[in-house]
Amino acid sequence: MRMKGALGKLAWKPDDGIWLIPSRGIHTIGMLFPIDLVYLDAASKVIHLVEHLGPFRISPIRIKCASILELRPRAIYASNTRIGDQLLICAPEEMTQYCDQNRTQPVFTDR
Question: In terms of DSSP H, where are the helices of 1-111?
Answer without folding.
Answer: 75-79, 92-102
